[in-house]
Amino acid sequence: MLRKTPLAAALMTIIAAPIAAPLYAQTAPQATSQATPADISPAEGTTLPAVRVTGQADTSSDFQPETSSVGAKVPTALRDIPQAVVVVPKSVMQSQAATSFSDALRNVPGITIGAAEGGQIGNNINLRGFTARTDIYLDGFRDRGQYYRDTFNLDSIDVLYGPSSLYFGRGSTGGVINQVSKQPTLKKRADVSVMAGTHDRYRTTVDLDQPITDTAAFRINAFGQDLGSTRDVMKSKDFGIAPQVKFGIGTPTEITLSALIQHNRDQPDYGVPPLNGHPAPVDRKTFYGFTDDRTIQDVQTLSARIVHRVNENVTLRNETQFSHYSTEARATNPAAVLTGPLGTSTALTNGNYTTLPLQSLYVRLQGKDRNINDHSVYNTTDVQAKFATGFVKHEVVAGVDLSHETYSNQTFTATAPGLPSNTIAIVPLLNPPYNNRPSNVRELATNLAESSANGIGIYANDTISLGDYWKIVGGVRWDRFEASIHNSINAPSYATQTNFYTSVRGGIIFQPTETQSYYVSYGTSFNPSLEALTLTNTTQNISPETNRSYEVGAKWDLLGGGLSITQSLFNIEKDNARTQTSTGEYTLDGDVRVRGYQLGVAGHITNKWQVFGGYTYMNGVVLKAADGTTGHTLANTPRNMLTLWTTYAFTPQWEIGGGPVYTSSRYAANTNYVSVGGYTRWDAMAAYHQKKYDIQFNVLNMTDKKYYDALIPSDGGRAVPGLGRTFLATLNYRFF
């Protein structure tokens, strides 16, 4: 039998779709997100699994998103975005009891998690094989702080795949992730949620929405949590508050003022070291560090938005955001694996292969102490205009982005007497002791890196409608990004760069019916050396890396519009990647490529049965590199990923749900010395709904599967064990 590769099977499916989709259209009425009661006959209303009525139906528990602003900076129907987009709505996060940013992103195929590394703390995300650490956004503005994000104030998380510098400037090789905040409304609400779980997990959230006048409202969301873990020692105590006020709701001019204030005190987790090419076979509870390690983070973000609708065809918008992020980290990581308990013992390398028994091995503990401060000011002014030139219709978005960013990172070394520099202790690989950091450790301030950057971007994008079936999307952006860095000790002592780059985006969309959309697209992006306001020596004089993406896909609304299916084939290539030569210099002669296929599903199969999920196949390879990794598989890029969440309301009050998350094996670094095995994690839920309250039970990792969640490429490749079986009970109470 002839076997098809995932890419070949996907291509055949996309080609066959134009034949299959009309069959659905013939058996179910066509529906769009703009449907009104007058558009649906009684007969149709009785046969549709899901009737979507804008402004009328309660969609708070609906898994099927209709629009996203991540693909065009303004709310746009997903079918009109010529790129793959995944929108994780609040209803999915609530159903899964997903309270952290990382947990919510488990619903997004193609995303893998990195962990604390070097000067980076907080959410470290890989998207389609490329780092997205600086490609996380909050309401359209870069959220570049290094902190652990929460979902308490989010309506959705929108993910746009592929290079997208047209709207977002530098970065976005694999795509961008935008957090969409809850907004004040004219509907009064007061919701309180209380959660308790095994392993001492406690959490409370509050959501208050209060109309002030007929056109103004105030909303405030808050949370507090005290979380234990299935890992020894690990714990976190966090709280946050997000007030917002909105004036002019429903009038031509709307003004929104908002803030995010969050405080985290978490236990840093640098995972377990590798042994014989895999994570060391120790109990997953094992913790390498000290009980008084901590990461203290404070976030303050202030935003102002003014939207003025000149008329039904022209809208002006101006947005400003001020952000400050501070991090105090006193952390410890398991570094080299040693063959003995002394600082002079031989260190294992290259995957740490050895025939020695586990009880003969030791781990060097190193300090990762640092104080980090990030500041940023962003301003965007744009105009959205609709007009026609003859029979051709245009929807134009044009604007100017301005930014100023600063960054400082003071690092420290911590050394215990009689041990090598920056070594705090040497502990057994098996059953390391859990103690406070020794009092005789000498801490010394080392390098202070101070950076700043100024950016300006001018962009325009036009969506051209040619008749009823065809749309052409085209845009261009010019960026000037100027950055400088000063190091007190490290080289270079001072460096500055000014980069100019022109990004483009183009796409052709064919929509034969209101339930079908087929597209091809092309996009570019760029990555300066000082993109994250940090710099590796010898990279200061080289040009930005550039990326390009090709994508072909299809988006369908089936079962009367109640179920959305998306498919795409993609190719992302960075053909001038930075690589290090044998002399230590960096050049732009590397070539990295990720090809793959993606499938997504969201919505109703019946009016009681909902699904949300996706699958991706990624073939990430280093095509060319001067560091000896040519031909290797790209780090943290599994070939196959699957996520599926489904719920069924078998009575108006009772609902059950669950589903798997599958990730195949992956490498911790491009060296391919250390790999982490694939896994399938199963979660489940049951809920009882009443008008005033919900009671919900969740089981995370129902089979207590041992797996590794986050990967760290340094020291050969460390891996952080995932959460063990955890039971959660949640009470949601609505006062109105």
TrEMBL record:
It is a multi-pass membrane protein. NCBIfam families: TonB-siderophor. This is TonB-dependent siderophore receptor. Residues 78-176 form the TonB-dependent receptor plug domain. Pfam families: Plug, TonB_dep_Rec_b-barrel. Transmembrane segments: none annotated. Keywords: Cell outer membrane, Ion transport, Membrane, Receptor, Signal, TonB box, Transmembrane, Transmembrane beta strand, Transport. The lineage of its organism: Bacteria, Pseudomonadati, Pseudomonadota, Betaproteobacteria, Burkholderiales. GO terms for cellular component: cell outer membrane. Residues 262-701 form the TonB-dependent receptor-like beta-barrel domain. It is found in: Cell outer membrane. Belongs to the TonB-dependent receptor family. Gene3D superfamilies: TonB-dependent receptor, beta-barrel domain, TonB-dependent receptor, plug domain. One of its GO terms (biological process) is siderophore transport. Residues 1-25 form the signal peptide. The keyword Membrane applies. InterPro entries: Beta-barrel_TonB, Beta-barrel_TonB_sf, Plug_dom, Plug_dom_sf, TonB-dep_rcpt-like, TonB_sidphr_rcpt. It comes from Caballeronia humi. The keyword Transport applies. Its main location: membrane. GO terms for molecular function: siderophore uptake transmembrane transporter activity; signaling receptor activity.
